Amino acid sequence: MKRLKLFFINTVVLTLTSFLLHTIGVSFNVYISGKIGTEAVGLFSLVMSIYLFAVTIAKSGINLATTRLVSEELAQGNTSRAKKVTQKCILFSFLTGAIASFLLFVFSDTITKVWLHSRITPKCLHIVCIALPFISMSSAVHGYFTAVRRVYKPASCQFFEQFVKIGLTAYFLNLLFPPGLEYACLSLILGDVISEVCSFAYIYLLYRLDSRRYHNHSRAQGSDSRRIFRIAVPVALTSYIRSGLSTIKQVLIPSSLEKSGLSCSDALSGYGMVTGMAIPVLMFPSVLINAISNLLVPEFSRYRAKQDYKRVKEICILLFKVFGIFSIILTVFFLLFAEKLSVWMYQNAEVAVYIKLLAPLLFFMYLDTIVDSILKGLDAQVSVMLCNIIDLLVSIFLIYFMVPILGLPGYLLVICVSEILNFTISTGKLVSILRHYT
């Protein structure tokens, strides 16, 4: 009963935090869209796809490894081992973050010339290099707090990070840098990087204070590094492939739109409206989904460690029922109020068309998030990554061959195929696992 109460409290904390952060984030996106225009939004989305690929290399599966291993140790009462494995995860994350930073710096010239068509200079990517080790170490510490069920601490860190980022970005856009595409991207990136460094300092201080409750009264058995690698390395390798393919996918979209007859500016604007405006609106209610999914990994890890397979099946069925209904209700809402939302938020009625076209995908988007978290908790994280890789390969194929023919409608069709395919494969894997549980 105590565990259920704690799970509920953490869910409420994460939901409220995510709701407030999403509200702030969407409001900030509205401000940014009006400030820099849809073309700059599209260019920044491309830069962010490269940024996220570098972040994937930096993190290298360390968040999941920390959450899983700390959860397993605490389930068995090994508090000192839980502390030691967290420390090793932080060290591992620093090394992977430094490697990612070095690689991005070395290849920044090539990336800006080949992928970004020299629309910006490499200095934007050079600034990103500073943040990568800090982002990676923050990920490890977040994994620790998820495992120990004290999510209110990283929640406070997220608020701190968001306000620092918004304040600095607004300052750079309005007072420091002159107008222009590159300076707009530079303002957004610089604000994000500084906020990430400050965020790590904050979350690490919270970790040092929190971990004092776990005393090192026993020596580690020397297998922690092997256990970290067993979880992190397969996730990292598949994440590299998935994120690399995702980056290729995002970079291909504007160029494929240009091949359909659109100018470079129109291609970036269309891409910006779908990716940077319509999809964030549709994903705004996912705050509850994300809150639940973050907590499902340690919960299902504990059930698996205790071989409580009956409970696993019961919770899976409950989650599908609750969030299936939740997604259907939201789909109807967006279909009815798309015009009002797009005009109210962006003063652009054209965005409503994309919101309506993509709204029926919410069922697949939301439930796929839940399924992926369950699979990670059941030690099937590699299967999750493989599903994503298959999805991305299919998407890249369709973008390369269909979007030049169909234009922006072809891109929307690719999104539909991608979401349905990913959900189908992931759910099939979960059903297969549950069938083996007796």
Q: Can you offer a commentary on this structure?
A:
The protein is mostly helical. It has one domain. The chain contains 15 helices and no strands.
User: What is the domain tally?
Assistant: 1
Mean pLDDT score, rounded? 81
Poorly predicted runs of 5 or more residues: none
What value does the Rg take, in angstroms? 22 Å
**Total count of strands:** 0
SSE map:
Elements: H1 2-59, H2 62-75, H3 79-114, H4 123-147, H5 152-176, H6 181-210, H7 224-259, H8 264-283, H9 287-305, H10 309-346, H11 350-358, H12 362-377, H13 381-401, H14 403-406, H15 408-436
Helix pairs in contact: 1-3, 1-4, 1-5, 1-6, 1-7, 1-8, 1-9, 2-3, 2-4, 2-7, 2-9, 3-4, 4-6, 5-6, 7-8, 7-13, 8-11, 9-10, 9-12, 10-11, 10-12, 12-13, 12-15, 13-15
Task: Provide the descriptors you would attach to this structure in a database record.
438 residues; mainly alpha; 15 helices; globular
In a nutshell, what does this entry contain?
The protein has one domain (2-436). The protein is globular. The chain has 15 helices and no strands.
